[in-house]
User: Fold this.
Amino acid sequence: MKFLFATGGTAGHINPALAVASYIRETYPDSQILFIGTADHMEARLVPAAGFEFKTIEINGFKRSFSPKAILDNVKTVGKLMKSEKDSKKIIGDFKPDVVIGFGGYVSGPVLQAASKMGIPSCIHEQNAYPGITNKQLAKSVDKVMLTVEAAKKHLDSKNEPVITGLPVRGELLNQNREDSRKLLNIPENAKLVLSFGGSLGAAPLNNAMHDILIKNANNHGVYNIHSAGTNGKEFIEQLKGEGFEEVGEGIIRKGNVEVRQYIDNMDVCMSAADVVIGRAGASSLSEIEAMGKASILIPSPYVAENHQFHNAMALVDNNAARIIEEKDLSSEALSKMIDELLNEPEALIEIEKNAKNMAILDSRERIADVILSLVKED
Assistant:
């Protein structure tokens, strides 16, 4: 069997595709798998590193502006779109896949469109509660549409009834034990742990809102805090060093019960040990929060396409599986109040944890693979 995956742009698109492709490779060792992406985004590094064959097309998204430069760029994009579909047909014709699978990002568009025109079975996976433009268009022509959450259905006009599959979660997260994680982090069993992060780059609004909370918790013997300032948060870390935090490792500072890092490289340990998780509302993060059954305060990024993080967050909030503070309402006072409410109301905290866990789909890789395999035509 031959499988062609098309995805790219962000790790949120690429890693779930790699998880499913790896599962297919493990289950069917004789299968052949090819990825199509672009040469100048993360897939060019992540896909070959995972041991998969990788070919590129040249494509970029449309600019959402009417400035002269944006208009000129969009004219060029139309030309690239036409060429990328032609290049996709060539790659598909040479590889002769049994199924073509799109995992989001604008690179999926020309590849899946070419596959549909060539009569090759195709499917897409949408990770967000509010689908992206590319997948909205593809849903009308592909054979199967897979969704992370039920809420995405109402935003799609798909040829066939969508299938809810969830989003693959890294295995190491599922295997972590809360007690063992707390021992690794030197956190007493009866203490509360708040974990806060704004993604690998960090989020300045979250850093600013957490500042006073971190200062307060440094002297609070009952509450511990691990905060990631992000790789763009060097100035924030320097500010805290001027306020009594001491450097204890590369990119790590500490004062009392509070540890601030540039990047959290053991998220599985930190999240499993946490009582409350604070962060953005990317689809991958939310799937991890659900899988681990964690209470969370979500601060959706308003800077993403279609404001999809807000819709992602509301899928949990509407099920009493999380709390939300929109960035326009974010302040140290508002965030501190919500943290205290959760930590001081154990019954409410347990209910949120239970509801989050109930939303988790832990066999997502298998569900997605089953949909893909159902499209393979018998010889």
Notes: The chain has a mean pLDDT of 90. The two ends are 11 Å apart (CA to CA).
